[in-house]
Amino acid sequence: MEKAMKYEEAMKQLEQIVSKMENDELDIDQMSEQLKKAQQLIKLCKDKLMKTDKEIQKILSEE
Prior knowledge:
81% helix; 2 helices; mainly alpha; single chain
């Protein structure tokens, strides 16, 4: 997975995966593959949010 992916792009991809699952557009093999990709995207988003939160806390504590 692309390292420099933006949060918004990761969320868009997650939404597409969820939409395909909800509409039964995936077969079993695709489902497994998409679930793995979704896990990676969720981790990427969580990491970005945690990093941003730490940066905000650091800035606020310096004031």
